[in-house]
Specification:
eight-stranded mixed beta barrel, 33% strand
């Protein structure tokens, strides 16, 4: 009886192989499009940031967190149609946020990968974060807060009245939350 079932299955597969391949192709296409849509929205906060800052200082080009062995280039990124652009090779500086040295909120974010900003999940208060700007200046910040928020919680990435460094990456099931690290200049 097992031989009959195997041969029947082989015949069924061979007769319908075109349909099976078509269905598999449709499924793979669906998952590919879904994944690309998901990846494009990763790290985005939901809501609008309408305030921009007038910058007097040079933009950041590198972030270093010696305690976590993080040393990454920083690229400029913006928000288009609600989607935050994200560097695949380093960290991203939100172009409408302040630059290091300015009197406001410097927002730097990146993917939750071990070679990128993923290790900030282990950051502790008092940890020193170094930011290097394109004019050769170094700015040091000390961590004061670490918190998980929903993507709708914009308060951490909005402009501030004092120099603040805000780092964040995704966290939670299916990257449904944001891990935010706040640091003050020292």
């Amino acid at each position: 009886m097992a031989k009959i079932r195997r041969s029947s299955l082989k015949e069924l597969v061979s007769k319908n192989s075109g349909y099976i391949l078509l269905i598999l192709g449709i499924i793979l296409t669906f998952f590919s499009i879904s994944y690309r849509t998901y990846r494009s929205r990763v790290l985005s906060f939901k809501g609008n940031i309408t305030e921009t800052v007038i910058k007097q200082y040079a933009k950041p080009i590198r972030i270093e967190i010696p305690d976590l062995k993080i040393d990454l280039p920083v690229e400029e990124g913006g928000i288009q149609e609600g989607i935050w652009s994200v560097s695949e090779k380093g960290a991203t500086h939100l172009n409408i946020s302040e630059n290091p040295g300015g009197n406001g909120n410097i927002v730097i974010y990146g993917h939750n990968k071990n070679k990128l900003l993923g290790p900030i999940r282990w950051i502790k208060n008092e940890t020193v974060i170094k930011i290097f700007s394109e004019d050769g200046s170094e700015y040091d910040y000390k961590v004061t807060e670490r918190v998980e928020v929903k993507p709708t919680e914009l308060s951490y990435v909005l402009p501030k009245n004092e120099e603040t460094l805000t780092l964040y990456t995704c966290t939670g099931f299916a990257d449904s939350k944001r891990l935010v690290v706040v640091a003050k200049r020292i």
